[in-house]
Amino acid sequence: MRGQEIKVEQSLGGLLEIGPSISDNSLLSSKITNYVVSNKPQDFVAIRQILNDYMASSSVLVKIEAFSADGSLLASLGELNNISKSINLINEDEPNQYSFFKISKTKIGKTYIHTAEPIIYGGKLQGVLKIVLDVTSSIETFYDNTGFGEKGSSQVFVINSSNQWAELKELNLVADINPKVTIKKVSYDGFLNSFVAQRLPFITIDKLIPGRKVAVEVNINSNEVFSAIDRFYKQLFTAFVLVLIATLLIGMWFSKQITNPITVLNKKVGEVAEGQKGVEIEFKDRDPTEIVTLSVNIRKMAQSLWRMNEDLEGIVEERTAQLKRLTENLELAVDERTREFQEANTQLLGALEDLHDAKNELVKAEKMASLGELVAGVAHEINTPLGVAVTGVSQAISQLNTLETHKNSGSLTASSFDQYILDNRNLLILMTEQLNVASTLIKNFKEVAVDQNNFDVRELNLHDYLNKVFDTVKPKYKPTNIQLKLTCPQGINVSTRPGAFSQVISNLLINALIHGYEKNDSGVVNVICSNDDDSVTISIEDDGVGIAEDNIKKIFDPFYTTKRGQGGSGLGLSIVFNIVTEALQGKIEVKSELGKGSQFVIEIPTRLKGQ
Predict the structure, then answer these.
(1) Strand partners, 605
(2) DSSP 8-state secondary structure symbol assigned to residue 397
(3) CB distance 482 to 521 below 8 Å
(4) Least confident of 261-275, 382-396, 410-424, 495-509
(5) Phi, psi of 579 (to 5 degrees)
(6) Dihedral sign of CA atoms 16, 22, 26, 32 in order
(7) Rounded distance, CA 527 to CA 536, Å?
(8) How many CB atoms lie within 10 A of CB 1?
(9) Distance between CA atoms of 428 and 102, rounded to whole angstroms?
(10) How far is CA 342 from CA 52, 339, 353, 356, in A?
(11) Which three-class secondary structure state does DSSP give residue 175?
(12) For residues 67 and 98, what is the distance between their CA atoms, to the nearest angstrom?
């Protein structure tokens, strides 16, 4: 029974893995996401090409449909013809029902299973993939001979959305299957039933496959199962009758002196009859010859019965080995198909990964370089308060040593001790103030730095968060004559991705310092915030050299920079544009004239779509 259950589970599992393998295709997920957002024709063509490749590479795929998260049909390949009967395994009005949900039958005898798989991209549900698979040949495998004798048979059942059971091959409803089906307890009905013909012709075992609304039913011929046991009990019964008759005859002819040996011997025979192994049939030298002979014969009989039992166990092991070999052959076939699919999938994804590697490495290098500059600046800024604190600790230790010397020499006076307390209190206050400055710098930098590697959505107060970002870039401004100014009302809150937001603001502030001013210039970089009901506007304005009109058109292009050879990579503003338009769901524009400074205006929603 376990072997047939494994066979059905593995065949069904191998088919149902097709759906997740398609929905997990990262290229398909990204194209569906892009198409839903931008509705670009090239994304629609790419979706259909990916689905068409899967249809062409699989012999069991009948139809594939891709839907957006709101239920709109994006693409459909393949057709379903002549559907004569179908069974829903899950109520269609239940939300978020995926995997195996429907079985249908065609007029020409083909059987289809319908599966639904979620399409996840960026941690969000972007759509649903509905797939129809032809399982006609697999059903024939389900109904192969189970190996439980020549007259045995097997069936597979599924449960529909109304909690009714249906036979899988013809999809006919069956009334006498228990929805909570499990392995029935099968017990031996006695060998006398083999004489009086009261034994049921078949033993039926039903087993629900865990995690599936699928059950396997195996019918085994009763006589084939119990024949060896019948023979064993017939021989045991015959032996018991013979021993009983011999005991009665001996009791009639011998005196009471042999009653006790007979009682002991009878007890041993009972233990053998109960199926115990290794029972010692003992006798004494003074026992009558008949008792000795009887004991020897019973010992031989018990050994014969034990050998018969071992032969029966050998038959069971042989049948078990046959089932195991069948299971291993099926597993090898499934593994081979799985390897072929994985190799094809690896080849398809390899080309895409190669295309993205170069771009990702450049973007990572730019982000790490920017973060490295912030680290260097903050480290330099923290050095001053930490230096004061270290000096204060040294001074405190020196004063403490002096106090100890006066105490040991007996020259310690009340006035000198009061002076020591006063000096050390002032010293500790100074050290505390400096360490608080360093702690605030580290805390703000840590929060902003962690945010830059975490694009989760969080609600933040715009004024407070911009001050923290200012703390991370102020070390870059400190050696210059350029001032940072924030004009932002206190009550503006926005639900967005702080990591993406802080990266945009810090990049623009450093960009203004590098590209907006020459060495020894003076000026002001002002960040101005405003809001309405649905959006927030952040304007980064400087009074520097400005941007030429021809350069404004190319300023957000990748690898474009006016500082080529001076440390500029040309990726900073390109990254800013992509983060604003994609991660922050906003827009950015630049206004500038030569000699009149520059203005970068960012508009983002107060709450991201889908949140």
Answers:
(1) 535
(2) H
(3) yes
(4) 382-396
(5) -65, -45
(6) negative
(7) 13
(8) 18
(9) 75
(10) 18, 5, 16, 21
(11) coil
(12) 13
Q: CA neighbours within 13 Å on the CB side: how many for 348?
A: 18
Strand locations in 25-70 (E): 61-68
Quickly list DSSP for 553-593: TTTTSTT--S-TTTT--S-HHHHHHHIIIIIS--EEEEEE-
Q: Is 192 helix (H, G, I), strand (E, B) or coil?
A: coil
DSSP line for 220-245:
EEHHHHHHHHHHHHHHHHHHHHHHHH
> Can you name the residues that pair with 206 across neighbouring β-strands?
217
* Phi, psi torsion values for 435, nearest 5 degrees: -70, -35
Nearest to 482 by CA among 517, 529, 515, 528: 517
Q: How far is CA 240 from CA 116, 212, 244, 302, 312, in A?
A: 64, 50, 6, 11, 20
Residues 311-363 have pLDDT tens digits of 887 888 888 888 888 888 888 888 888 888 788 778 777 755 765 554 455 44
pTM of the model: 0.35
As a whole number of angstroms, the distance between CA 571 and CA 575 comes to: 6
d(CA 352, CA 361): 15
Beta-bridge partner residues of 494: 460
Distance from C-alpha of 181 to C-alpha of 172, rounded to nearest angstrom: 18
Q: How far apart are CA 478 and CA 59, in angstroms?
A: 68
CA dist., res. 563 & res. 569, Å (int): 8
What strand order describes the sheet that includes 535-542?
481-487, 522-531, 535-542, 598-605, 587-592
Report the candidate in 334, 7, 11 with the shortest Cα–Cα distance to residue 145: 7
R_g (Cα) of the chain, nearest Å: 43
Taking only the tens place, the pLDDT of each residue in 523-550 is 999 999 999 889 999 999 999 999 888 8
Which residues have a Cβ under 8 Å from the Cβ of 371 and sit 6 or more positions away? 449, 452
Calpha distance 588→7 (Å, rounded): 59
Q: Which two tokens stand for residue 182?
A: 């499990």
Angle made by CA atoms 91, 97, 335, in degrees to the nearest 5:
120
Is a pLDDT exceeding 90 seen at residue 6? no
What is the CA angle 560-566-568, rounded to 5?
A: 35
Question: CA-based angle 592:594:595, to the nearest 5?
Answer: 110
Quickly count helices (H) and strands (E) in the chain.
14, 18
Alpha helices in 413-461 (DSSP H): 414-451
Strands (DSSP E) contained in 39-169 are 61-68, 73-78, 83-88, 99-106, 111-121, 124-134, 153-159, 165-167
Distance CA 366, CA 504 (A): 13
In terms of Cα–Cα distance, which of 112, 92, 113 is closest to 162?
92
Nearest Cα to Cα of residue 406 among 419, 394, 423: 419
Distance between CA 77 and CA 584 in Å, rounded? Answer: 35
* Length of the chain (residues): 611
Q: Are β-strands 522-531 and 481-487 bridged in parallel, bridged antiparallel, or unpaired?
A: parallel
Q: Which two tokens stand for residue 197?
A: 């013909």
> Which neighbouring-strand residues pair with 214?
158
Largest Cα–Cα distance in the chain?
137
Predicted confidence (pLDDT) per residue in 455-496, tens digit? 578 898 999 999 988 888 888 888 899 999 999 999 899 999
Q: Report the C-alpha gap between 593 and 251 in whole angstroms.
A: 129
Q: How far from the centroid of its chain's Cα atoms is residue 415's Cα?
A: 72
d(CA 282, CA 388): 99
* Contact present, 160 and 172 (Cβ < 8 Å): no
